[in-house]
Write a structure and sequence with these properties.
Length: about 500
């Protein structure tokens, strides 16, 4: 048969399958923009500013609507009520993880971030228990963060008040905290292995938020058959996993089952306990992926928040002045900040919350998926359907946070200047899939930012009013623009 005829028949068949699936399933899903065959709604989506696209769609189709990424539908939840109703009120049904095509290549459903079902429950339960045993939220982890905060301050002193790009230094601190939990060691900021790891993490954070990666996730055939920066991303992940496997083998050689030193030791002991269980989730491959997840997630999100936060503080010197007044009154200049100080520092606490709210780090959260067919707001959402909660629509709700596009710690203060909690504060998402490291991240942000402002004044070489805090991309994560800063010792 003529190749051209075969091609036409194949394309026609794909078109018919798509139309059949659309007509048979779309009536059960929420309304949304009309998708094109094969490519779905990709031409209607601004891959550089996905959250704006979602906001515009919600004005037309309401708080729950459907968009097609290629031939796959995703149900978007827009606004606090829709997000709460799904992720909290129906938490179990919405607790699945929607797999991104690029994550399918890297994790293969293993680890903790992109796993599902019993595997996810077992690994998450074990990880939470292990981190708690090692003191997450307790004194021992706090001491590690305080130690790293002191190291961070010393590294910033070495800049000698000269203008510098803070990206690398601010990435090292949270990375070292994770390393102390996983590998039982921190690295010197000049250590070559550490430098290499940091370079890969920083590079991958930029790649995954690029327009090209959004296109790859919408049209996954690109990943396997076309060149592009996604191949660099996959290579970086593979190299990081290779390094982790090397560290695991070192742990195996020196393991003392009666004296676990860190997370890897605890996992290896669990593997030994379950070695006769053929269905066990505690395997070497799962260990590598879980450590990789903890390593990447625990480093890049916190470091990006720190970097973005300092840029916002540069733009708002009046906020720095109020925080430093509170530091002088509560802590002074001689001792290190502690988590006990936070309850006596409402403005500083509000400042940290406002940074997280304002920057909207992960605009659409990580994709969820429904674990069964579910009737939701009179729509029938089939099992496995991807769910995208718009965290932007919650964090920037103009009724909860008046003038949400303005950076203002007052969003988290009452009339008396006391800290004011908000149910709309969801930078770590919410429900069953809430970020595993929320407690650690909150601790790091408070202690690192307070330590920096305790020891330094921040200065920009250009007029603070002219600093641009617009993210350079807001696809998967909101990435702040590059900037220079001077750390002037107090």
């Amino acid at each position: 048969m003529d190749p051209a005829v075969v091609l036409v028949l194949c394309l026609s068949s794909l078109l018919l399958i798509f139309l059949w699936r659309q007509s048979s399933g779309r009536g059960k899903l929420p309304p949304g923009p009309t998708p094109l065959p094969i490519i779905g709604n990709i031409l209607q989506i601004d891959v550089k500013n996905f959250k704006n696209t979602i906001s515009n769609f919600s004005k037309v189709y309401g708080p729950v609507f459907t968009v097609y990424f290629g031939m796959k539908p995703a149900v978007v939840l827009h606004g606090y009520e829709a997000v709460k109703e799904a992720l909290i009120d129906h938490g179990e049904e919405f607790s699945g993880r929607g797999l991104l095509p690029i994550s399918e290549r890297t994790s293969k459903g293993l680890g903790i971030i992109f796993s599902n079902g019993n595997r996810w429950k077992e690994i998450r339960r074990f990880t939470l228990m292990t981190l708690r045993n090692f003191g997450m939220g307790k004194r021992s982890i706090e001491e590690r963060v305080q130690e790293e905060a002191r190291c961070l301050v010393e590294e910033l002193r070495k800049t000698k008040a000269s203008s510098c790009d803070p990206t690398f230094i601010l990435s090292c601190a949270p990375c070292n905290v994770i390393c102390s939990i996983i590998f039982q060691r921190r690295f010197d900021y000049k250590d070559q292995n550490f430098l290499t790891l940091m370079e890969r993490l920083n590079k991958n954070a930029k790649i995954i938020s690029s327009s090209w990666m959004q296109i790859c996730n919408n049209l996954p055939v690109i990943i396997d058959y076309l060149p592009g920066i996604h191949n660099k991303f996959l290579k970086n992940v593979a190299l990081t996993k290779s390094y982790i496997l090397e560290k695991i083998k070192e742990h195996q050689e020196t393991l003392d089952v009666n004296n676990p030193r860190d997370f890897i030791d605890c996992f290896l002991i669990k593997m030994e306990q379950e070695k006769h269980n053929s269905q066990s989730e505690f395997t070497m491959e799962n260990l590598v992926n879980t450590v990789s997840d903890l390593f990447a997630a625990g480093t890049e999100t916190t470091s990006t928040t720190l970097r973005y936060g300092l840029l916002l503080l540069l733009k708002h010197p009046e906020v720095i002045a109020k925080v430093q007044e509170e530091i002088d009154r509560v802590i002074g200049r001689q001792r290190s900040p502690s988590m006990q100080d936070k309850s006596h520092m409402p403005y500083t606490d509000a400042m940290v919350h406002e940074i997280q709210r304002y920057i909207d780090l992960v605009p659409s959260s990580l994709p969820h998926a429904v674990t069964c067919d579910i009737k939701f707001r009179n729509y029938l959402i089939p099992k496995g359907t991807t769910i995208l909660p718009s965290l932007t629509s919650v964090l920037h709700d103009d009724k909860e946070f008046p003038n949400p596009e303005k950076f203002d710690p007052g969003h988290f203060l009452d009339e008396s200047g006391n800290f004011k909690k908000s149910n709309f504060f969801m930078p770590f998402s919410t429900g069953r899939r809430i970020c595993l490291g929320e407690g650690l991240a909150r601790m790091e942000l408070f202690l690192f930012l307070t330590s920096i402002l305790q020891n330094f004044n921040l200065r920009s070489l250009i007029d603070p009013k002219k600093l641009d805090a617009t993210p350079v991309s807001s696809g998967f994560i909101s990435v702040p623009p590059l900037y220079k800063i001077c750390f002037i010792p107090v």
